[in-house]
Design a protein that fits this description.
This protein has 28 helices and two strands. It has 551 residues and is mostly helical. It has a two-stranded antiparallel ribbon. Helix 16 (355-365) packs across helix 18 (383-392). It starts with 75 loop residues before the first helix and ends with a helix.
């Protein structure tokens, strides 16, 4: 997702573990117990436009890379229940990217699901993933006159998530409240001032109740910004204990800073929404953009671009600033200079308070800089970090150039580089034998048991180990591959029906963990196998490489 703002001076090229880890042994209750019970059907409002003037609801969204039959003949109640119950964030950046593609692409409503509600459910899940712009794109593909009640609610959320209160103006009014007061008088005042009608804005906005410290003041401030209302409205977050869509949408539209303690206590998707808030400076968007990049919402190229915008806005070209180090990583005089700059970026993340998530963000940030380093045995101590960085952005061809260095490298760095390439390369470019896998697992020990188990699962799922060898290696780690389970059976049904979208959704269901330590190895084998079986091996490889990088 592009991070908006003024064009920066370029930074990048013009083109282009926990000690107590253990194998996750059992799956959570991943599938709903009863998919037949649904909420009462919502009736779409009557159409007021002639059929010739309205857009079709048959296929809403851009062309699907997984095909219009991505969900095939799946029962809509089943698919939608999975979507509504999916807990975010999921463990994998690449699984999120895959799911976004499946949800955003134009697909007909599954059997039993209303067309407008199908758009609403896709957009609602995209919002919870942090994909505000993608959700808004879907909502805007439907004429307001054809909104169902659910789609209307999601349209409100998407307008606020994209910091665009004006997006509320075309919507029919309802009974929503914020801060114990009706929201629509405030919306009417905001829309009036945005339309230049100060008289209506002043007559409508009124004053908020005395016990409302934030919701009405934000609306008043927005009206005042348009030329109406009171100019002396103060925004005071002191008594505010939670962040809501309304508070986020209006504050970010005004460019008002949201206190970090509220962001820390809110779902992580608010950080992803903040990363693209156009009224904030690039510097203020860098921290949330790093989080959004790890989630899968912001790309490596867009993250680099944002650093360039921050440097451009400040006019500061200090080589020891974060943006200055990034510029040096891309444009240093030689490999040693560029590597030194990359180490400074990686070390800052490793020594900071952001934990594993921020370390992975640093890898995403330096991906294309890593491509510029010439493969050499002299860099064997850096091969793991370089390969991990490249594959964090999907640069598999470039990472494969380091195969000989990775094979020859020793110690833990050599093992890490080997494991990432063993599962992430387009074809086997490093030696993959049962003996090599056993050696990896033995050196990893108990603290790396989860990494070893996921490695065996990924290699087996990608067909790079025989079933017999994989079963023996998994058994040494206390894992049974291929055992029948409700989750595995659901994946097999989706594979049998060639439903790529359903497979992507089910993989995300299996990733309902805040980190990779909670992804069961037996389930991971089922995921990778299913993706490969429906022609999504590229996605399977990137997800597997991510597992090796982040554990």
């Amino acid at each position: 997702m592009p991070v908006q703002g003024a064009a920066p001076a370029p930074i990048g090229p013009a083109a282009t573990s926990n000690a107590d880890e253990a194998v996750a042994e059992t799956s959570p209750a991943l599938l709903p117990a009863d998919i037949a019970k649904l909420a009462a059907a919502e009736i779409a409002p009557l159409e007021e436009m002639p059929d010739a003037a309205t857009r079709s609801l048959d296929l809403v969204g851009p062309e699907s890379i997984y095909g219009t039959d991505a969900f095939g003949e799946a029962d809509g109640r089943y698919v939608v229940t999975l979507m509504r119950r999916l807990q975010t964030p999921i463990a994998s950046r690449w699984a999120e990217i895959m799911l976004r593609r499946a949800l955003l692409g134009a697909t007909p409503a599954p059997r039993g699901e209303g067309q407008a509600d199908w758009v609403a459910d896709r957009a609602a899940l995209l919002l919870r993933l942090g994909e505000a712009d993608a959700a808004r794109m879907l909502v805007q593909g439907v004429d307001v006159e054809r909104f169902s009640p659910r789609l209307r609610r999601v349209a409100i959320e998407s307008a606020l998530a994209t910091s665009d209160p004006q997006g509320l103006c075309p919507l029919p009014e309802g009974g929503e409240q914020v801060g114990g007061q009706p929201v629509w008088p405030m919306v009417r005042a905001i829309c009036a001032t945005l339309a230049g009608d100060e008289a209506t804005a002043n007559a409508t906005i009124g004053r908020g109740p005395p016990n409302d410290p934030i919701d009405h003041p934000l609306a008043e401030r927005l009206v005042a910004a348009g030329g109406g209302g009171r100019r002396d409205v103060q925004i005071d977050w002191t008594a505010v204990d939670s962040l809501t869509d309304w508070r986020f949408g209006l504050a970010s539209a005004l460019g008002v800073a949201i206190p970090q303690n509220l962001l820390d206590g809110a779902p992580v998707w608010f950080e992803a929404w903040l990363a693209r808030a156009p009224m904030l400076s690039a510097a203020d968007r860098i921290a949330p953009a790093r989080i959004a990049a790890v989630l899968g919402v912001v790309s490596s190229a867009d993250l680099v671009d944002l650093y360039g915008r921050a440097m451009d806005e400040s006019g500061d070209e200090d080589t020891d600033s974060p943006a200055g180090r990034l510029r040096a990583a891309y444009r240093g005089d030689d490999d040693d200079a560029r590597l030194n700059a990359m180490h400074a970026i990686w070390d800052a993340a490793a020594n900071g308070e952001g934990g594993e998530r921020d370390r992975y963000a640093a890898s995403i940030l330096t991906a294309r800089a890593a491509v510029g380093i010439t493969p050499s045995g002299d860099q064997k101590d850096d091969v793991a970090a370089l390969v991990e960085s490249m594959l964090a952005a999907g640069l598999d061809i470039q990472a494969e150039r380091w195969a000989q260095v990775a094979d020859a490298a020793g110690g833990s760095d050599g093992d890490r580089a080997w494991s990432v390439l063993a599962v992430g390369a387009r074809r086997p470019v490093v030696g993959i034998t049962p003996a090599r896998v056993r050696k990896f697992a033995d050196r990893a020990g108990a603290s790396g048991a989860q990494r070893s188990a996921l490695l065996v699962s990924a290699l087996a799922g990608l067909g790079r180990l025989s079933d017999a060898d994989a079963a023996k290696l998994a058994a040494r780690l206390g894992v049974t591959l291929g055992q029948s389970s409700p989750y595995g059976n659901a994946l097999r049904r989706a594979v049998s029906a060639r439903q790529r979208g359903t497979v992507a959704l089910l993989v995300a269901v299996g990733m309902q963990s805040p980190n990779w330590t909670g992804v069961p190895a037996a389930d991971f084998y089922q995921m990778v196998s299913a993706l490969r079986a429906v022609g999504m091996e590229n996605e399977a490889r990137m997800i597997s490489a991510e597992a090796m990088t982040r554990l």
